[in-house]
Amino acid sequence: MFILRNLWLFFLDFLETIVVSLAIFAVVYIFLFQPHQVDGQSMVPNFQNGQYILTDKISYRIHPPTRGDVVVFHSPQDASVDFIKRIIGVPGDTVKVSRGYVYLNDVKLKETYINDPGEVTSGKFGTESLTIEVPPGQYYVMGDNRLHSSDSREWGLVTINEIVGRAFFRYWPPTAFGLVPTAEPELTMGSIKGAISAIGSR
Questions:
Q1: Most exposed: 48, 60, 161, 202, by fewest CB within 10 Å?
Q2: Is 193 a catalytic residue?
Q3: What is the pTM assigned to this prediction?
């Protein structure tokens, strides 16, 4: 009887530990951080297919997304699919693709972090030399691998409600372990230096 009682107490303690652990995991997953796996090549060379990242879901409740942030969001075409892209334009900005380059607020960007500088193509939404004005609550996003990315050039702007959060930490593979930086310095050049503060992957 004594043995059974000890076994029962051990089982209750074990069950309590499991329940508490699951509760903590649920709170973290729902409100704070969410793991995602990069699927595809659209963020090469900065994110490789198969890498695992943590998405910060709390920061944008405190402050709005900024230019250069890498964000995870629900695809505007299929809310069940998450994409990872980089924010190029925030509310109030103008964005244009012309002659192979991106222009932000009429200034050509020097994007040293992208795969194919000088070869950026337009799309169905952001056709060649068309200036897109970013309205309140929306964002213009692009993949870093511009020749192989379905992004705002094709299907338009992303709303703040579609953004899951900011990709802030890579945890796998070990060779890529570390924080995900914002590309603000690369998005800044010349006269706009002071103005710019700034998961499926298709």
A1: 161
A2: no
A3: 0.80
